[in-house]
Each structure stands twice: as structure tokens, then as C-alpha cells.
Amino acid sequence: MRTSTVPSLMTPGRIAERLGVPLPRVLYILSTRPHIQPSARAGCLRLFDRQAVAQILHELNAIDARRGKGVSHAD
Hints:
The chain is mainly alpha-helical. It has one domain (12-66). Helices cover 47% and strands 8% of the residues. It has helices spanning 12-19, 23-32, 50-66; strands at residues 40-42, 45-47. Strands 1-2 form a two-stranded antiparallel sheet. It starts with 11 loop residues before the first helix and ends in a 9-residue tail after the last helix.
């Protein structure tokens, strides 16, 4: 039997919701980090995979660390 898994892709809004941060912070990361690219597109929507979400979380934590906030976000 052949099964295929459907990748879990998220929009920037869903990423912000999942990480518990305001959407503008996620959009800032996406606009200033060219190495974080969407995995797919659906019309004009950019869809990101788990690896991209992990990269966004890493960048948010790095910003918080530089600001002295030392806060870890969700997951």
C-alpha cells in the first residue's frame, strides 16, 4: 500500500499564531532574511514548512537575546 504524507505548510499569520508573537515580527523576519524562503505558493499566499518555522523561531530568539529579553517562544 502506498501512502504519502501531506506536508504541513503554514502562512505567516499561522506561524505568528503558533509562535505566540505579533504578525509584524514574523513579517519582519521574512522580509529581512533572504535565506528563509517559502516552500510553496497558493495564489498570492506564501506557505512555509517546519524547517522555515524553526528558522523564524531561531531569528526571533536571536533578536530577543540581543535585546536582553532571553525569552523562548512556543514549541
